[in-house]
Amino acid sequence: xxxxxxxxxxxxxxxxxxxxxxxxxxxxxxxxxxxxxxxxxxxxxxxxxxxxxxxxxxxxxxxxxxxxxxxxxxxxxxxxxxxxxxxxxxxxxxxxxxxxxxxxxxxxxxxxxxxxxxxxxxxxxxxxxxxxxxxxxxxxxxxxxxxxxxxxxxxxxxxxxxxxxxxxxxxxxxxxxxxxxxxxxxxxxxxxxxxxxxxxxxxxxxxxxxxxxxxxxxxxxxxxxxxxxxxxxxxxxxxxxxxxxxxxxxxxxxxxxxxxxxxxxxxxxxxxxxxxxxxxxxxxxxxxxxxxxxxxxxxxxxxxxxxxxx
Length: 310
What we know:
This protein is of the alpha+beta class. It has a domain at about 5-65 and about 225-295.
């Protein structure tokens, strides 16, 4: 690397590292100040009496309730916040390997060897392009993968804003539904074949045939949670005091699975903030160290000269 490039890259790394460290410290200080503000200003409340805390930041514990989520294509009904549907079709799939061999003249060559297997795949496979015409696919997907959300989510009767619902979905996580968790009584088949539960999904047969369809679901199921949010206009939402507010708690909200005290939730927030701060501190230190090392290794050196006096 020439001297000019080393100076440019090394200097840029040092400056970027110092900048990253400064931004990290500023954000960590801001986050710590926000959590301290929440700890001093949040009220303990209960879902049945939260109406008395209009405009306040509150800490509540309760059970999530939702409107039913309906898959319009299968007619299945779920008690869930979010439902994700995965649909697959049973098809022949072509694979090949280029195998080396030696011909009669001793020359090294390769030949393509095709193989065929039946698999569950996400979309129909065009068998007209297969090397071997004996393997024929049939069938089409009646619908596609999709995600469905409940229109209304509440905490023991207290509605949650979209932002708090998204946090709840993230905290609870998706769970794959097995056959017993899916109520088949409301199933309305809109394609050929009889659907039946098989190993956690819906399939047309125990031993599937080419063209068979299977549908599987994962869902975010209701659970007991703890929430820190502002109660305003009948909804739990991130704390808001108006555009441009300089109040430390502005925009704060948090969700945790299970019954968590306010101190437990804020302790977890402090821990997460601290972990990320140290990650970026280490990154900043590595950038500075890398830049300094690059400058040092590529520093100008004096060339020693020797000669005899005349």
